[in-house]
Amino acid sequence: MLPPKLSPSMMCADLFRLGETIDVFRAGGVPWLHIDVMDGSFVPNLMLGTGTVRQIREAAHIPLDIHLMIEEPGEKIAWFDPRPGDYVSVHAESTRHLQRVLAKIRDLGAKPMAALNPASPLSMLEDVLPDIDAALIMTVNPGYAGQRLVPQTLDKIRRLRAMLDERGFPHVEIEVDGNVSLENALKMRNAGANIFVAGSSLLFKPGNLADHIKLFNENVR
Ligand code: DX5
Ligand code: ZN
Question: Is 39 annotated in the active site?
């Protein structure tokens, strides 16, 4: 099994305390920062803009995991200036030319990831497996923090892991996003996920951020 990793959801962070939050992430060895980009059309919400993403990048020196929840992401990917080591995910539902968009992410030097909403079948990814470094299974309908797990997505993770392994893509990672609490993370891990988007359910909740990270590292293995 690929090792478990955290990708903190920066839309849930207090931007007025970004410096100290990033210090905790750096000390905790967090490998990516999850950046939710919403266009008010693909999802019913608007955030995080190119300027904010640039500021987070410059302050953090941690690779970004840019989750594009936007219609026809193709030409807009370059706006976020992806770098080697970054993940960029695009939704299979958001473009008529998924393979071309994934190839473009690779051309820009970043790691391509294809994302699926809870209702979208895994068959949408079947023919792009050579084009991705990871698949993002949405475990809530994207748009907001603080929602409840859509339970049937756990079996979808399991089926995706089996599909990847059977077809010769054991290196392709599975990211999960939405209501990743410690309890749900254990179930998702058991199903085969290895990158955990940590939002209001896991990290950005009352208590100490470093303790929440420690608890994840000790329990999700
Ligand atoms: C959902 C967002 C998530 C969200 C996850 O559209 O992509 O990043 O913030 O956090 P919680 O734990 O609040 O579901
Ligand atoms: Zn996300």
Answer: no
pLDDT per residue of the chain (221 residues) written in tens, 0 to 9:
999 999 999 999 998 999 999 999 999 999 999 999 999 999 999 999 999 999 999 999 999 999 999 999 999 999 999 999 999 999 999 999 999 999 999 999 999 999 999 999 999 999 999 999 999 999 999 999 999 999 999 999 999 999 999 999 999 999 999 999 999 999 999 999 999 999 999 999 999 999 999 999 999 99
10 Å CB burial of residue 192 (0-12, 13-18, 19+) is buried
Q: Delimit the domains of the chain by residue range.
A: 5-143+150-219
Which of the following is catalytic: 14, 23, 36, 65? 36
Q: Which of 62, 44, 56 is nearest to 11 (CA)?
A: 56
- Homologous superfamily of the 5-143+150-219 domain (CATH): Aldolase class I (3.20.20.70)
What b/e string do you get for 54-78 counting C-beta neighbours within 10 Å, with b at 16 or more?
A: eebbeebebbbbbbbbbeebbebbe
pTM of the model: 0.98
Name which residue sits closest to atom 8 of ligand 1, judged by CA: 9
Cα separation of 19 and 23, whole Å? 6
Query: For this structure, is 86 an active site residue?
Result: no
